[in-house]
Amino acid sequence: KNQVEQSPQSLIILEGKNCTLQCNYTVSPFSNLRWYKQDTGRGPVSLTIMTFSENTKSNGRYTATLDADTKQSSLHITASQLSDSASYICVVSGTYNTNAGKSTFGDGTTLTVKP
Amino acid sequence: DTEVTQTPKHLVMGMTNKKSLKCEQHMGHRAMYWYKQKAKKPPELMFVYSYEKLSINESVPSRFSPECPNSSLLNLHLHALQPEDSALYLCASSQPGTSGNTIYFGEGSWLTVV
User: Fold this and answer.
1) CA distance B111 to chain A (A)
2) pLDDT band at A38 (very low <50, low <70, confident <90, very high)
3) A49-102: pLDDT as tens digits
4) How close, in Å, is residue A11 to chain B by CA atoms?
5) Three-state secondary structure along chain A?
6) Which chain B residues are Cβ-neighbours of A110 within 8 angstroms?
């Protein structure tokens, strides 16, 4: 069964600090892995997307890594800001030529950044 | 700003009402999706349209009826809903057939069934 597990479930950090969120998956065959940020009451916004051959991808203060061998990904947030408070969702697609197919969503990590 | 537009942003309806949620995208994507999201849970896939044809229906009750009039528009018709159907309904789009396709989400429509 395809699964995506995220940890921690929730995290509280002080403004300006760094943090790392984890995503482990069992989706196979692997196509791509995406990280989304979802503010409360709003739709998810894509942060990064990585395919099999990509190990690292950055988007501003967000850096995602992917180890396709161990089926692990991380999202590192540098110099956190109050606006980073949100839910971060890891989404894995398991079909190469996905004809708008299914993706497997993690339960998300709720990040709270405090002043 | 999201390039997937959903209307209305908020909808309150009675259990005997008929209403519709609308979604529009102009990115040329040929795949469009409806998701349902409850509080503190990830989005759950409901329907997928690929090239204007329904390709996935995740055993959604018939009180939800999707419609894809053209490649830019996606509707979700609602009839005889239950209070437990109250949720955030997200529309999304992507370009099928590519390994690196990002799914773009709209801001969602908050539905309350009373």
Assistant:
1) 12
2) very high
3) 998 889 999 999 999 999 999 999 999 999 999 999 999 999 998 765 444 557
4) 14
5) CCCEEEECCEEEEECCCCEEEEEEECCCCCCEEEEEEECCCCCCEEEEEEECCCCEEEECCEEEEEECCCCEEEEEECCCCHHHCEEEEEEEECCCCCCCCCEEECCCEEEEEEC
6) 40
Mark yes or no for CB contact B42/A105 under 8 Å: yes
Here the tokens at position B88 are 């955030």
Q: Which residue of A has its CA nearest to B41?
A: A107
Interface-testing mutation among B23, B29, B102, B104, with chain A (most A C-beta atoms within 10 A): B102
- Six token digits for residue B106: 């709209």
